[in-house]
Amino acid sequence: SPGWNDDAFGICIMGDFRTAPPNEKALNAVRSWIDCGIKHGHVKEDYYIITHRQSQRPGYT
Fold first, then answer.
1. In the record, which residues are listed under signal peptide (predicted)?
2. Distance in angstroms (rounded) separating the CA atoms of residues 61 and 37
3. Among residues 30, 31, 34, 32, which one has the least CA distance to residue 43?
4. Which of 12, 16, 24, 41 gives 20 to 30 Å between its CA and that of 55?
């Protein structure tokens, strides 16, 4: 995203989540990645998450 690429990481979980959220395996992988980043000093402990949702029809997100 413009203005964020020098200070942010992008994580993508692909799937159709209109009727069910991502499964625990996917969410645990994201948590593990963030925890590893914190442990090694690449992610701040007070991180925050900004979400983005794609749509089949742009404008209806």
1. none
2. 30
3. 34
4. 24
